[in-house]
Amino acid sequence: MKDNFTRIIKDKIRREILIYLYNKNRAIYSDILHDLNLSTGKLNYHLKTLQPLITKEGDYYMLNEKGRQLVEIMLSLGNDKRESEYTKYLAQFLAIASLIFLFIAGGLLSKINEFYTIYSISIILLLASAFFLYTQEVKGLENAMIFLSILFPYAFYLNGHIFVYFVLPAYLIITSSVSIHYYIYELIPTLIYYFGILPKFMNYNEKLMITLWTIILGIDVLSSFSYSYLIDLTPLLLGLSTLINRESIQNYKILFILTLTVIIVGILFKIIIKP
User: Fold this and answer.
1) How do residues 1-18 score in pLDDT, each as one tens digit?
2) Which of 48, 52, 114, 252 has the fewest CB within 10 Å, making it most exposed?
3) Does the structural domain 2-77 have CATH classification 3.20.20.30?
4) How many CB atoms lie within 10 A of CB 274?
5) What digits encode the pLDDT tens for the residues 21-56?
6) Beta bridge partner(s), residue 172
7) In the chain, domain spans
8) pTM for this one?
9) For the DUF7347 domain, which residue ranges apply (predicted)?
């Protein structure tokens, strides 16, 4: 048995797959294929060889107990250097820091120089977060990253700034002309987060993601079918972010369809009633 394990981990690609699953906890086939830059034939071959160390549940691959023990031994022996705790959390901490600076920037719109300085720092931190997220393995704070999806579109609002009228919701449909209106300072970080960061964490806790999406969609229903002039397009952007990963859209297909339905019917409702 020991000789079998030695043969398995002798190959560099198999070691990379094992460590990848160790850091990710679980991953679908397409994620492994993309993140490790492998061909389907090569990945299929190595997954078959790794069967004694891997368990498959539905579409997800994960290490079994033997697999986790073997990786821990590998790392402790220094065959593959395990990333430090700081490195594994770096992308997440940068995203949180970006939100904090964005929140501060929302209160400085009347002080344009200070606003641009703090806002620029926020965007740089967010881009750095996305960069590290796609260039190294990360682990931890997954639920926090999901929760941030309902904070980024409303960061200026949370600050309670006097110009909140123009930034909440961040994306408006004006009843009279059915035109999209957005506040560019809020739209940019939201797009970076929704399309560059959130897709990496979206499938980690499906129940939490569904709960948050449902809350946002519920608020959208209240605004869409009211006599107010606005419809918040945030849940639509959230739905579009699931398209980054084909697995995501399958997990949230019903919510995506409901989101499209609410927005389309809401637009028709506002056009017809013309308040």
Assistant:
1) 444 666 676 777 888 888
2) 48
3) no
4) 7
5) 888 888 888 888 888 877 888 888 888 888 888 888
6) 181
7) 2-77, 85-273
8) 0.64
9) 8-73
